[in-house]
Amino acid sequence: MKLEEMRKMTTQELSKKIIECKNELFDLRMKQSNGTLQETHKIHELRKTIARLKTVLNEKENGGNQ
């Protein structure tokens, strides 16, 4: 998901997407602990995506560019 797409989302959509990503991250970590995860790079990508989503959400809540 690109940053432009994230900025077009509403705060409710951003919150929902953050929860979805956290759940997916949990599932990937469980697969990694079991040794069944093949694509370990997805954990890193998801962590970065969650951080971006939180940043955009924080920008929206605090009034955007200052």
Structure notes:
By secondary structure, the chain is an all-alpha fold. Helix content is 77%, strand content 0%. It has helices at residues 3-8, 11-34, 41-61. Helix 2 packs antiparallel against helix 3.
Summarize the topology:
Elements: H1 3-8, H2 11-34, H3 41-61
Helix pairs in contact: 2-3
Describe the structure concisely for a colleague.
With 66 residues, the chain is mainly α.
- How many strands, which pairing sense, and closed or not: the largest β-sheet? none
Using the CA coordinates, give the radius of gyration: 14 Å
Mean pLDDT equals 93
Estimate the global geometry from the Cα principal axes: elongated
- β-strand amount: under 5%
Number of β-strand runs: 0
What brief labels describe this structure?
66 residues, mainly alpha
